[in-house]
Every structure is written in structure tokens, then in C-alpha cells.
Input
Amino acid sequence: MSEPVALITDEPIDRAWLEAQVLTDADGALVVFEGVIRNRDHDVAVTSLDYQAHPDAERFLADVCASVATTAGLRVAAAHRVGHLGIGDVALVAVVAAPHRAEAFATCATLVDEIKQRVPIWKRQHLADGPSEWVGL
Output
């Protein structure tokens, strides 16, 4: 099994490219999670987000992907976007390929949870009523 793909980018994420990095002819399941910017957070209207990453965030993301891939014995890939994102933009794509769906779903959920918990990326929400707030600091 090759090293998992882990990418921090300020460009739109190429989901098809990530899928191609993990999917083989032996796989019967491909699970993809896309984290999409929504217009509300806890009943507060949000107009956009700014994501900022620690300079070593890509290394942290690679470590998370490698850990999850090793534990599950599956191929995984993940990419997180930074910079200014609008409503509907994709901020995170996590991909898992597996012979069967149950292990792919479970591993993808673990991958996303670990990324959110361990990768130093912060978001600043711009609120519809004018101010902004940092989330996850």
C-alpha cells in the first residue's frame, strides 16, 4: 500500500483526482465525504468563511491519513482547502476505497473525525449581521 495522499490547498479540490489515488480494481466501495460551506451555524446566518492553516498542517494531515490507513488496512486520501470560501464551496474531501462498503463508511467517518480533531486548521466565520468569529481555536 502506498503512502496516503494528503493535501492542503488554496485551490478548489479535485475530487476525481483524489478518488483515482485510492481506487483499484479490487475495490467494491468508494466512500467520499465532502465538507461543504453552509449558510448557518448554530442558528446564526453565515455569509462566508476564511480557513487558515498552521505551516505544518499538511504534515499533520499526512500523519492522520497514514494512521487511519494503517489501522484500517485501506487506502485513503484527503484534501483541505484554505483561504476564502463562499457558501456551497467544498472545504474538505476525504476518500476511502475498500473491498466492502461497511469498512469504507466506518473508515471515512474515522478519517474525517481525526482530521477535525488533529489537523491545525482554523476557520473565521463571516456573519450576515456584520461581525466575524473564529471557530475551533
About this structure: The chain is about 30% helix and 40% strand. The mean pLDDT is 95.
